[in-house]
Predict the 3D structure of the following.
Amino acid sequence: MATSLPASEPLNAVQLDGLVVLKIIKHCRESYPNDVTGQLLGLDEKGTLEVTNCFPFPSDCDENASAQYQLDMMRCLRAVNVDNNTVGWYRSAHLGNFVDSNLIDTQYSYQKSLSAHSAVIIHDVSKSAAQGNLSLRAFRLTDAFMKQYESKKFTTESLAKAKLSFSTIFEELPIQVHNSHLVTLMLHNIEMPKLDASRLRSPATFAQHTELDDAKPLSPNFDVLDLELDPFMQKNLEYLLDCSDVQQQELNNYQYWQRSVAREQTKMQAWLTKRRQENQIRVEKGQQPLPEDEVNTLFKLPTEPSRLDNMILTAQMHNFTKQLNQFAGPSLARLYSIQELQK
Amino acid sequence: MVNDNTLFVSVGNSATAPHQRPFSCTISPVVLFAVLDHYLRRDNKQEKVIGALLGVRSPDGTEVEIRNTFSAIYTEEDAQIVLDKEHYNNMHDLHQRVNPEEQILGWYTTGPNLTPASAPLHTVFAQDTGNFRPIHVTFDTEQLLKSDDMGVQAYTSAPVGFSTKPGDCLYLPVPCDIKYVDAERSGLDMLASAKSTESRSVSLLSDMDHLEIAIGKLQEMLQRISEYVDSVVTGKEKPNNAIGRYIMDTVSVVPKVDSASFEKMFNSHLQDLLMVVYLANMTRTQLSVAERLNLLVSN
């Protein structure tokens, strides 16, 4: 694949076509408990990534088969004049649990091999269903993180030098949705049917379902006014706890490393003092002092474990807490409005 | 967009049995968007586009749900439309790999009417739909421009005449609905909000904004109803029993809970929520403190 060309302008927004939004939703919803991925096609223009089409990846295939699938699909789509340019990929998620090493690896390879402007779009299926509000976010890795990832060194020192921490791994891009003229026309035409008041039949019983109750497209969506708080919060808290457990293990590893380094160092010190004493005695006797540098070859400091996993976990936990916060705002508003309604 | 002309073919022999039963088909919004997009991107020389419809069928064949499409290329040779078979087969295979349960249900074309040229194409698609008749859907883009209607028409076919080719058939119009699921609905709402803006684009809303908009709409609806009721009471409008009944039903849905127990429920809910928020914020501050410390450590 071509090496990344120097970007002419920094990327600052992502624009999706209506078709892409619906296709992503459909694909993610259909394979609900599994996480699925797909490819985004479009153009990169003047600091905005325009995504005009997308296609899903089959979930059960390995490296070679999936590369072949991509090539075939692109060839077929080119024949019908779809933009043939890959600009990124998308992935489904549930309640925000998408920050993991898989994501970073794939995004890194996209940004390296395709262009510095590829983005990953995350669609959160359970959050969209819970709140009635579409959850789509676009991310790309920051340049500083890319450089660090190349060097594969994630010690505390190198991170501190590069001023990297979990919040600077990703940068989030604002998303806009765009419709073509034809589609806009069509949206105007899908409307609620106009009922003639004089011909309404009065409902015989309270529980009767008339044709009005069937969901018509574009009738106002009041799912967001649902009062049920618990399932969403429970799930979120569960995920957060799992994450902190794993984080604890990682920290334990790190502390173990620190302790073993301390042990090695004390051993080194003890050996050094012994050497010096020996040397003193030898000098008094008139013999050559033994070298002190052997200390470095005799004792090896264990290498520091990579802090990358740690960073990923903290980023994930940060995400969960942010979600809880964001969820709480509207819930409070809903509770208070119910109180008003009761008065 | 609901077409009410369900054609009931009268009792005949068993060869035409599937067509006697009322037949309905539903389309998902993705299909509409995909077809319009294909139409936009067609080559300049071609007036209309052709493609295949994928979806699921109920076991007895009476309910059909169209969930996905892919486009096909064709060339016109001597006023005959010839489909590019290789491209078609490729696309079909690729789609099968992602969604094995979606089968080919039929085909679509844009353009106002059925033409005689569509008969041989119908034969081609009939090969893939198994024992069932392929469904043919036309999207009339001219009608979209000129009128309020959707311009979507679905047809199924019934054999006519003596030949055994499935292409020689009578096209029966079939009622066709647009249905969608919850998650799609939020997406569709957001796309629809773009239809009134100048640049036809809109940015995604945060949850708070979404709530605000929904409450605004609710308030507006309540406003309209109360104005209507006021005008009926003062005699400006004639009362309509049916509307009155609906209003009464709606208002009685608000549950009547006595205030003490409501206070208790409200407070406990509130406390739960606030506690979770407090814990989440505490975790966040911990994480930020750890982040700062890590940055300071080496020096």
